[in-house]
Amino acid sequence: MTKAITNNGLHPALLVAQRVVLAIVFVLAWWLAARHTPAFILPGPDRVLQALGALSRTDSFLHDIGMTMYRVVCGFVLAALVGTPLGLALGSSRALAQVFEPLLAVMNTISSAIWAVFAIIWFGISNATTVFVVFMTAMPLILTNVWQGAQNVDKLHVDLARSFRMTRAQVLRKIYLPSILPYFFSGARLAFGFGWRVSLVAETLGSSDGVGYRLRQAADLVQTDQVFAWTLLLVVLMLLLESGVLKPLERRLFRWKPV
Question: What pLDDT is stored for residue 63 in this prediction?
Fold first, then answer.
């Protein structure tokens, strides 16, 4: 199989063409549905694009996008810094895993909306509210994936490292860390997507700027075209980050893996 063929056997050009056709079908269906629906319920693509253009000319447009991205990145980085070493520790120690597994299960069952309520009580209307919610949503995902990766480390490699009298820190750094990187990136991409979405919930409840705050403001004023415009912008930004940053970085780091 040549490099020009993707994992599912499709040529990249054919894959792009299929996705373009899918997008066109979606827009046509949206346009047809909007023609038979009041604009305050379902605005058409043209009205949404006009609203997006009007929003982009406001003074707060770039500020709101920048603040949302800043909060998401801060929460995500903190989640990675905390979740990765904890996942390594739990994956390499059965005793620690047995102690902390119930706590992780509890954290995974608490919804982001509840974390947002706690964050407002503790931090008020501030950046910390959104950062905390993103952190509490993303960290368990990263921790769980890293934990799973650490459990799948080849025990023969660990025993060999110990036979060379490597310290526990060296075993973690040279054996466990390279092995868990694919699991980390899998969890990180999932966590970033969830973090991006829950940031809107947090900003809706506990911020005075940002995309989530603008969405709530537009909804309160029944400006449905602006709600759709902000939503469309978020989807585009997420796709750009996914295809322009996360996927290329993952391919570069794991280019040694067979296709």
Answer: 92
Do 37 and 154 lie in a common domain?
no
Buried b (16+ CB within 10 A) or exposed e, 105-143: eebeeeebeebbeebbeebeeebbbbbbbbbbbbbbbbb
Q: What angle, 0 to 180 degrees and rounded to 10, lies between the N-to-C axes of helices 112-123 and 127-151?
A: 130
Q: With contact defined as beta carbons under 8 Å apart, do 219 and 230 qualify?
A: no
| pLDDT (0 to 100) of residue 254 | 65
How far, rounded to the nearest angstrom, does the alpha carbon of residue 168 sit from its chain's CA centroid?
Answer: 32
CB atoms within 10 A of CB 230: 25
Is position 222 within any domain?
A: yes
The pLDDT value given to residue 256: 55
Please count the structural domains in the chain.
2
| pLDDT for position 253 | 66
pLDDT of residue 183: 80
Domain range enclosing 17: 12-48
Round to whole Å and give the CA distance between 147 and 220: 43
Q: Identify the segments of the chain with pLDDT beneath 70.
A: 1-11, 154, 157-164, 168, 173, 253-259
Tell me the C-alpha distance between 218 and 259, whole Å.
46
